[in-house]
Amino acid sequence: MSRGGETSTRYRFVELTAGLDEIWCGDARAFLLAPSDAIPAIIEGRCPHRGGPLALGHYDCRDRQWRCPWHGQKHALPALQACALPAIRRGPHWLVAIEAAAPKDEAICLTRCTRALG
Predict the structure, then answer these.
(1) Using CA atoms, how far apart are residues 83 and 52, in angstroms rounded to an integer?
(2) Which end is more exposed in the chain, N or C (fewer Cβ atoms within 10 Å of the end residue's Cβ)?
(3) For residue 56, which phi and psi values (nearest 5 degrees)?
(4) What integer pLDDT is reported at residue 3 of this predicted model?
(5) How far apart are CA 39 and CA 29, in angstroms?
(6) 0.90 cut: is pTM over it?
(7) Could you tell me which of 32, 23, 42 has the C-alpha nearest to residue 83?
(8) For residues 46 and 28, what is the distance between their CA atoms, to the nearest angstrom?
(9) Over the stretch 2-53, which tens digit does the pLDDT of each residue have?
(10) pLDDT in tens, 48-70
(11) Residue (of 113, 45, 50, 115) closest to 80 by Cα position
């Protein structure tokens, strides 16, 4: 529904249960970034540089930056956390609001390969 010519954004609320750390919903992607030296957050899954899959990147604890797997673009952890998706943590579970382009977009929760983040 729109008011005054504005288009509204649709969100789908997804529960990311323990052991799952990536969400796909239509074209939207998000992932749980939980390095041992910072507060966990649900982060937009596409690199702002060229749209690479940030979820497949890696974290460098020395300079606290996340590196995109496509072009090696580095993203400072505070900058990523500042753009985190709306989410509520309940124990090991997360309730995440992710943009859904169409009402039929279903959310899929996945597990990435686990590796140490620190």
Answers:
(1) 17
(2) N
(3) -95, 5
(4) 54
(5) 20
(6) no
(7) 42
(8) 8
(9) 455 566 677 788 888 766 788 887 778 888 888 888 888 888 888 888 888 8
(10) 888 888 888 888 888 889 999 99
(11) 45
**Phi, psi torsion values for 82, nearest 5 degrees:** -65, -25
Q: Which residue has the tokens 């052991």?
A: 19
DSSP 8-state assignment for residue 27: T
The pair of structure tokens assigned to 40 is 């966990």
- The pLDDT value recorded for residue 74 is 92
**Tokens representing residue 29 in the block:** 């992607």
Helices (H), 3-115: 77-82
Task: Choose among 62, 28, 59: nearest CA to 45.
Answer: 28
Residue 83 C-alpha from the chain's centroid: 9
| 67 neighbors 46 (Cβ within 8 angstroms) | no
Strands annotated E in the chain? 11-16, 22-25, 28-33, 41-44, 58-60, 65-67, 74-76, 87-90, 93-99, 107-110
CA atoms within 13 Å, Cβ hemisphere of 24: 9
